[in-house]
Design goal:
EC number: 3.6.1.9
CATH class: Alpha Beta
Structural class: alpha/beta
Bound molecules: thymidine-5'-triphosphate
Catalytic activity: dTTP + H2O = dTMP + diphosphate + H(+); UTP + H2O = UMP + diphosphate + H(+)
CATH topology: Maf protein
GO biological process, one term: nucleotide metabolic process
Strand content: 15-25%
Order of helices and strands: EHEHEEHEEHEHH
Helix content: 25-40%
Shape: elongated
Radius of gyration: 17 Å
GO molecular function, one term: UTP diphosphatase activity
Number of strands: 7
Number of domains: 1
Active site: 69 (proton acceptor)
Length: 190
Protein backbone atom coordinates (compact mmCIF):
# COMPACT_ATOMS: atom_id res chain seq x y z
CA UNK A 1 0.00 0.00 0.00
CA UNK A 2 1.36 3.52 -0.80
CA UNK A 3 2.16 5.59 2.25
CA UNK A 4 0.73 9.04 2.85
CA UNK A 5 2.79 12.14 3.61
CA UNK A 6 1.03 15.25 4.90
CA UNK A 7 2.83 18.40 3.70
CA UNK A 8 1.68 20.39 6.72
CA UNK A 9 2.58 21.32 10.26
CA UNK A 10 -0.99 22.45 11.03
CA UNK A 11 -2.11 20.71 14.25
CA UNK A 12 -5.74 20.86 13.01
CA UNK A 13 -4.99 19.05 9.74
CA UNK A 14 -3.03 16.36 11.58
CA UNK A 15 -5.85 15.88 14.08
CA UNK A 16 -8.58 15.75 11.40
CA UNK A 17 -6.74 13.12 9.37
CA UNK A 18 -5.87 11.05 12.45
CA UNK A 19 -9.44 11.18 13.82
CA UNK A 20 -10.74 10.08 10.41
CA UNK A 21 -8.56 6.97 10.57
CA UNK A 22 -5.63 7.77 8.27
CA UNK A 23 -2.03 6.85 9.03
CA UNK A 24 0.50 9.34 7.71
CA UNK A 25 3.73 11.16 8.39
CA UNK A 26 3.62 14.96 8.63
CA UNK A 27 6.44 17.07 7.28
CA UNK A 28 6.84 20.83 6.83
CA UNK A 29 6.83 21.91 3.20
CA UNK A 30 8.70 25.20 3.50
CA UNK A 31 6.86 26.39 0.36
CA UNK A 32 6.48 30.15 -0.23
CA UNK A 33 2.98 31.48 0.52
CA UNK A 34 3.47 34.72 -1.45
CA UNK A 35 0.90 35.27 -4.21
CA UNK A 36 -0.02 37.98 -6.72
CA UNK A 37 -2.67 40.41 -5.41
CA UNK A 38 -4.98 39.72 -8.36
CA UNK A 39 -5.49 36.04 -7.54
CA UNK A 40 -9.00 34.89 -6.45
CA UNK A 41 -9.53 33.01 -3.17
CA UNK A 42 -10.18 29.70 -4.96
CA UNK A 43 -7.09 30.10 -7.18
CA UNK A 44 -5.01 31.09 -4.14
CA UNK A 45 -5.83 28.02 -2.05
CA UNK A 46 -5.37 25.63 -4.98
CA UNK A 47 -2.03 27.20 -5.91
CA UNK A 48 -0.72 27.17 -2.32
CA UNK A 49 -1.95 23.63 -1.64
CA UNK A 50 -0.17 22.53 -4.83
CA UNK A 51 3.07 24.32 -3.91
CA UNK A 52 3.09 22.71 -0.45
CA UNK A 53 2.45 19.23 -1.86
CA UNK A 54 4.94 19.66 -4.71
CA UNK A 55 7.75 20.78 -2.37
CA UNK A 56 7.40 17.59 -0.31
CA UNK A 57 6.76 15.37 -3.35
CA UNK A 58 10.03 16.55 -4.96
CA UNK A 59 11.90 15.13 -1.95
CA UNK A 60 9.71 12.00 -1.59
CA UNK A 61 8.56 10.93 -5.06
CA UNK A 62 7.63 7.39 -3.99
CA UNK A 63 4.89 8.62 -1.67
CA UNK A 64 1.40 10.06 -1.95
CA UNK A 65 1.65 13.66 -0.73
CA UNK A 66 -1.23 15.82 0.47
CA UNK A 67 -1.00 19.62 0.82
CA UNK A 68 -3.75 22.03 1.84
CA UNK A 69 -4.30 25.73 2.35
CA UNK A 70 -7.15 27.69 3.94
CA UNK A 71 -8.18 31.34 3.53
CA UNK A 72 -11.16 33.40 4.61
CA UNK A 73 -12.73 35.61 1.94
CA UNK A 74 -14.89 38.63 2.64
CA UNK A 75 -16.56 40.13 -0.44
CA UNK A 76 -13.90 38.52 -2.62
CA UNK A 77 -10.97 39.83 -0.56
CA UNK A 78 -8.62 37.33 1.05
CA UNK A 79 -8.03 37.51 4.80
CA UNK A 80 -4.96 35.58 5.89
CA UNK A 81 -3.65 35.21 9.44
CA UNK A 82 -3.57 38.39 11.58
CA UNK A 83 -0.13 39.29 12.85
CA UNK A 84 -1.01 41.95 15.43
CA UNK A 85 -3.80 42.59 17.91
CA UNK A 86 -4.94 45.56 15.84
CA UNK A 87 -5.11 43.44 12.71
CA UNK A 88 -7.08 40.72 14.52
CA UNK A 89 -9.50 43.32 15.91
CA UNK A 90 -10.01 44.83 12.45
CA UNK A 91 -10.52 41.44 10.77
CA UNK A 92 -13.05 40.22 13.33
CA UNK A 93 -14.96 43.53 13.29
CA UNK A 94 -15.14 43.27 9.50
CA UNK A 95 -16.60 39.78 9.83
CA UNK A 96 -19.21 40.87 12.42
CA UNK A 97 -22.93 40.61 11.40
CA UNK A 98 -22.02 39.26 7.96
CA UNK A 99 -21.41 36.13 5.96
CA UNK A 100 -17.96 35.21 4.67
CA UNK A 101 -16.55 32.27 2.75
CA UNK A 102 -13.88 29.86 3.90
CA UNK A 103 -11.90 28.24 1.07
CA UNK A 104 -9.61 25.26 1.52
CA UNK A 105 -7.54 23.99 -1.38
CA UNK A 106 -6.26 20.42 -1.43
CA UNK A 107 -3.56 18.94 -3.66
CA UNK A 108 -2.72 15.24 -3.70
CA UNK A 109 0.25 14.11 -5.76
CA UNK A 110 1.80 10.78 -6.62
CA UNK A 111 3.87 9.54 -9.55
CA UNK A 112 0.68 8.21 -11.12
CA UNK A 113 -1.89 10.93 -10.39
CA UNK A 114 -2.36 14.58 -9.48
CA UNK A 115 -5.63 15.83 -7.97
CA UNK A 116 -6.26 19.47 -7.02
CA UNK A 117 -9.57 20.90 -5.82
CA UNK A 118 -11.08 23.41 -3.43
CA UNK A 119 -14.13 23.45 -1.21
CA UNK A 120 -16.09 26.51 -0.08
CA UNK A 121 -18.09 26.89 3.15
CA UNK A 122 -20.20 29.90 4.06
CA UNK A 123 -20.03 31.11 7.67
CA UNK A 124 -22.21 33.84 9.18
CA UNK A 125 -21.02 35.74 12.26
CA UNK A 126 -23.40 37.23 14.77
CA UNK A 127 -22.89 40.84 15.88
CA UNK A 128 -19.68 40.71 17.91
CA UNK A 129 -19.79 41.66 21.54
CA UNK A 130 -16.93 44.13 22.15
CA UNK A 131 -15.95 42.61 25.50
CA UNK A 132 -15.73 39.11 24.02
CA UNK A 133 -13.80 40.44 21.05
CA UNK A 134 -11.22 42.15 23.28
CA UNK A 135 -10.82 39.02 25.40
CA UNK A 136 -10.49 36.87 22.29
CA UNK A 137 -7.76 38.97 20.65
CA UNK A 138 -5.85 39.00 23.95
CA UNK A 139 -5.69 35.19 23.78
CA UNK A 140 -3.31 33.32 21.45
CA UNK A 141 -6.14 31.78 19.43
CA UNK A 142 -6.57 34.21 16.48
CA UNK A 143 -2.94 34.43 15.41
CA UNK A 144 -2.24 31.21 13.53
CA UNK A 145 -5.66 31.09 11.86
CA UNK A 146 -7.03 32.42 8.60
CA UNK A 147 -9.55 35.21 9.31
CA UNK A 148 -8.36 35.38 12.92
CA UNK A 149 -10.71 32.81 14.44
CA UNK A 150 -10.97 29.08 15.09
CA UNK A 151 -14.45 27.61 14.78
CA UNK A 152 -13.23 24.44 16.53
CA UNK A 153 -12.36 26.42 19.68
CA UNK A 154 -13.51 29.71 21.27
CA UNK A 155 -14.06 31.28 17.84
CA UNK A 156 -17.35 29.36 17.73
CA UNK A 157 -18.72 32.06 20.06
CA UNK A 158 -18.99 34.32 17.02
CA UNK A 159 -20.66 31.88 14.62
CA UNK A 160 -24.39 32.20 13.94
CA UNK A 161 -24.67 29.68 11.11
CA UNK A 162 -22.64 27.66 8.65
CA UNK A 163 -23.48 26.27 5.22
CA UNK A 164 -21.24 23.54 3.85
CA UNK A 165 -18.52 21.24 5.20
CA UNK A 166 -17.59 22.19 8.80
CA UNK A 167 -14.22 20.44 8.51
CA UNK A 168 -13.37 22.64 5.53
CA UNK A 169 -13.42 25.62 7.92
CA UNK A 170 -11.11 23.83 10.34
CA UNK A 171 -8.61 23.24 7.52
CA UNK A 172 -9.42 20.10 5.52
CA UNK A 173 -12.66 19.19 3.65
CA UNK A 174 -12.89 15.64 4.92
CA UNK A 175 -15.67 14.31 2.66
CA UNK A 176 -13.97 15.21 -0.63
CA UNK A 177 -10.50 14.45 0.71
CA UNK A 178 -11.48 10.89 1.67
CA UNK A 179 -12.90 10.29 -1.82
CA UNK A 180 -9.82 11.74 -3.47
CA UNK A 181 -7.47 9.62 -1.32
CA UNK A 182 -9.40 6.50 -2.31
CA UNK A 183 -8.47 7.21 -5.92
CA UNK A 184 -4.83 6.89 -4.73
CA UNK A 185 -5.70 3.58 -2.99
CA UNK A 186 -5.40 5.18 0.45
CA UNK A 187 -8.16 4.20 2.87
CA UNK A 188 -8.95 5.05 6.48
CA UNK A 189 -9.04 2.32 9.11
CA UNK A 190 -12.27 2.19 11.10
C1 LIG B 1 -11.20 29.85 9.69
C2 LIG B 1 -10.34 28.89 10.44
C3 LIG B 1 -9.02 28.65 10.07
N1 LIG B 1 -8.26 27.78 10.78
C4 LIG B 1 -6.87 27.48 10.41
C5 LIG B 1 -6.71 26.31 9.43
C6 LIG B 1 -5.30 26.49 8.94
O1 LIG B 1 -4.42 25.74 9.78
C7 LIG B 1 -5.02 27.99 9.14
C8 LIG B 1 -4.76 28.64 7.83
O2 LIG B 1 -3.39 28.52 7.54
P1 LIG B 1 -2.77 27.62 6.38
O3 LIG B 1 -1.70 28.47 5.73
O4 LIG B 1 -3.83 27.04 5.51
O5 LIG B 1 -2.10 26.40 7.15
P2 LIG B 1 -1.02 26.37 8.31
O6 LIG B 1 -0.01 27.47 8.13
O7 LIG B 1 -1.73 26.31 9.63
O8 LIG B 1 -0.34 24.95 8.12
P3 LIG B 1 0.49 24.34 6.87
O9 LIG B 1 0.81 25.43 5.87
O10 LIG B 1 1.72 23.75 7.49
O11 LIG B 1 -0.43 23.28 6.29
O12 LIG B 1 -6.20 28.53 9.75
C9 LIG B 1 -8.79 27.09 11.87
O13 LIG B 1 -8.09 26.31 12.51
N2 LIG B 1 -10.08 27.30 12.22
C10 LIG B 1 -10.90 28.17 11.56
O14 LIG B 1 -12.09 28.30 11.94
Amino acid sequence: MPSLLLASQSPRRKALLTETGFSFTATASGASEVLKDSVSPSQAVEELAYRKAQAVFDAHPDHVVLGADTVVALQGHILGKPETKEEARRMLRDLSSRSHQVFTGVAILSRARKVVFHEETEVRFQTLDEKLLEAYISSSEPYDKAGGYGIQAKGRLFVQSIHGDYFNVVGLPICRTVRALQSFHIYPSI
